[in-house]
UniProtKB/TrEMBL annotation:
<keyword id="KW-0238">DNA-binding</keyword>
<keyword id="KW-0815">Transposition</keyword>
<keyword id="KW-0233">DNA recombination</keyword>
<comment type="function">
    <text>Required for the transposition of the insertion element.</text>
</comment>
<protein>
    <recommendedName>
        <fullName>Mutator family transposase</fullName>
    </recommendedName>
</protein>
<dbReference type="InterPro" id="IPR001207">
    <property type="entry name" value="Transposase_mutator"/>
</dbReference>
<comment type="similarity">
    <text>Belongs to the transposase mutator family.</text>
</comment>
<keyword id="KW-0814">Transposable element</keyword>
<dbReference type="Pfam" id="PF00872">
    <property type="entry name" value="Transposase_mut"/>
</dbReference>
Amino acid sequence: MDMPVKHKKPSIAAQAAARTARFPKLPEHLLDGLVEGPMSAMEVEDLIDAFGKAVIERAMAGEMNAHLGYRAGEDKPAQQADERNGVSAKTLLTKHGSMRVQLPRDRDGTFEPVLIPKHERHFAGFDERIIALYARGMSVREIQAFLAETYGTDVSPELISEVTDEVMTETVAWQNRPLERMYPVVFFDALRVKIRTDGLVVNKAVYLALGIDANGERDVLGLWIEQTEGSKFWLKVFNELKNRGCQDILIAVVDGLKGLPEAINVVFPKTTVQTCIVHLMRNSLDYAGWKDRKLVAAALKPIYAAANEQQAREALAAFAAGPWGTKYPTIVAAWERAWEHVVPFFIFPPDIRRVIYTTNAIENMNRQLRKIIKNRGQFPSDEAAVKLLWLALRNVLAKPSRSVHTWKAAMNQFAILFGERFTEARD
């Protein structure tokens, strides 16, 4: 059995070394000229700020040279009217705080700088800092207070909102990006968020689809917000996935989402809908008393551990006739209601069962999202919720991930069980 590859998170020292490796190496004589003797922490900080200011002003001067076609102090080209016209002071917001710089101007006003565009007040890196804070769940007011306290920079709520609103362009592009032609497994789940709608705070569901591609890598296919679920909503979701290029889903793993089985069978008629066994167990144990739960769980295990559907049905009947089924008939009823979407589980070999046994893959992601949205309380709109959740997802997916446990063995079983539906999509 192939063991999963564990990715160890780089140490703080290793991360710092990686960042330092990207810095250009400065000539020794330049450093000697800047640092001639012992310096205090304040003097070092002032020197860093002065150096940053000098680099920005020098880079802007270089842009002006390229725009005019000659350097300062040289003769301008013949028949050229445009020329330098002094400098203008501008306060920039950087990730280290505010900085006052002198930027060059030309007489015709045709100079369009790239490094610091006209009317731009925040330097490269500042936007990323705001977005990073927002992605961690901080509100606009909290970001404003943090920047003021940490960098001594007074940033308006409007500017912060403007920066984070730019993320929506990326969000829309992500939500409409092309998908893989086939996904062996897609997990569907939901989490609840509070969103202000028409003056009222409403609990809405955010639905996520986490696909496992043919190589065992995870990919969030999209997220959707809906106040109530149903077949009409899910039909819209599945048509969207198909229009974006997904032509087949082999197994959809769900947790009792209303209307999903009916809708997916319209758009993807060959897809097998599988109930999440772990969710079904949890729901069952909710009916049992606290002291009985461990014993009830042990009594239910023969059902989902059965070799085939017949043995599973016999195990369910034995549970129903036994002491726990007699004491908790609601547990028996829960399994019988879900049985239609439990039985596919017994068709699959153990390697595939391990993959689809639970929606833990998507639950782990939801757990991280809940941490981020916990302190927000409520969102002013659906768009604000989508924006933050996508930023949070981007951070989660950016972390090194490992392939689904035992995927290599499962991949071979998928190829045997689903034939060309699996193998042709991998070619």
